[in-house]
Amino acid sequence: MGDERKQVVTGAVDAPPEQVFAVLSDPANHTGIDGAGMLRGIASSAGPVTGVGDSWVMNMNQSNLGDYQMRSEVIAFEPNRQIAWEPAIHPPDSLAHLIGDLDFSGYHYAWELAPNADGGTDITHSYDWSGVKDDRALPFFPRVSAEQMSETINRLGQAARTT
Fold this sequence. Notes:
The protein has one domain: Alpha-D-Glucose-1,6-Bisphosphate, Chain A, domain 4 (2-Layer Sandwich). Helix content is 20%, strand content 36%. It contains 4 helices and 7 strands. It has helices at 17-24, 30-33, 96-99, 146-161, and strands spanning 6-13, 39-42, 55-62, 66-78, 82-90, 108-115, 121-128. It has a 7-stranded antiparallel beta sheet, covered by helices on one side. It is globular, with a radius of gyration of 15 Å.
């Protein structure tokens, strides 16, 4: 796995890990913290996730794709410490008219949380597409910039303080 297929940003927020994790583990909160502006609201009403294997469906929009949906599955879950999910186009062939048979699967978003001395949380947020197997899809990554990821951390901190 090369670093050229992974983007990592860090930040600190003025809220304890329990509050930060509460925001991250409830997909209904994700639209409000999305620094990339692609999320349009949860399509499934699953409530907070509670472990690996849980999933949800999110309504999405990008200018070059229009409206579509992604199903995310939790791949790491340690309360108040880490959470990660792997998104996939939902249903799998719903964008075939735009992307053909390109396979974008194999990427994930991860969050690592650590309490800091100020009572807040140090956050490491990663976007990893090293698992993408279809070489034809690689030129489309990253879909989210480091700046957008940093903005998500900022919005996460704001949301966690009001939790």
